[in-house]
Amino acid sequence: MKHIFCILFLMAxxxxxxxxxxxxxxxxxxxxxxxxxxxxxxxxxxxxxxxDAGPTSFTVDEDENIYVLxxxxxxxxxxxxxxxxxxxxxxxxxxxxxxxFLGYHNGMIYTxxxxxxxxxxxxxxxxxxxxxxxxxxxPENTFNGLSFIESNSGKFGLLRNSGPQNIEASELVLSNNxxxxxxxxLFDLPYKPVDLQSVWPSDxxxxxxxxxxxxxxxxxxxxxxxxATDLGIINNNSExxxxxxxxxxxxxxxxxxxxxVFPVVTKNGNIxxxxxxxxxxxxxxxxxxxxxx
Length: 293
Known about the structure:
Blueprint: H1 2-16, E1 19-30, E2 55-60, E3 66-70, E4 76-79, E5 85-88, E6 99-105, E7 108-113, E8 120-124, E9 130-135, E10 147-150, E11 156-159, E12 172-175, E13 178-181, H2 196-199, E14 206-211, E15 217-222, E16 229-234, E17 240-247, E18 264-265, E19 271-276, E20 281-292
Parallel strand pairs: 1-17
Antiparallel strand pairs: 1-20, 2-3, 3-4, 4-5, 6-7, 7-8, 8-9, 10-11, 11-12, 12-13, 14-15, 15-16, 16-17, 18-19, 19-20
């Protein structure tokens, strides 16, 4: 009993001494409507058991241009960091199933379909002109929770989020149009195991988001089913770091898409989120301003 008490006491002291990173945010409204340079939101009439249609995924390039995937005909629309429309992709017939995942790597935009045994990858340049479209072999595991991610060695692929214990490898590599199964080590540094549940409890679970150039690992913790999440970090010393970041969700505003619009962490450590309400579509940028003990 005394041994257990000592462990709990040391854990409590550790939490009191834990580091907190402080972020501020900027909010930009993306144009909303039915025109080419706008993002549409179709609200299903009450009583009809269908889902609202609107943005489904997004990514950000190094210039903070925003690429938003829309549910209607799988069109990607590009905006600058101030929300000004730049261009849109064209609808491609027979280019694969409905696309869900959107990622940016080395000047190219990647999308991947879901819902079949042979998913499609599409590759676009920054002007959203399609460069390539090809089939890939579906891994044994579901594509649920996948994220496009770049390893420290520069390989770009899909990471399957099956739990914090499995974040060190992905099963599919897409690099320079070569795509194959492979265990891909993401990190240069060895990380000690960190039990997120003990330092950052959740009844629902976590999602690994990305890692930055300093090898800090970013997680979001689910606070309530389908609603807001908060952000936690494991730094490159394998220490847990709290943050003041809360990532809002469209579900809290009564909008019900088939899939959640996942927040994005870029390699410079910036965090981005898109929140949809009936009145507006907000693009939110969180950036670090300091640290506290």
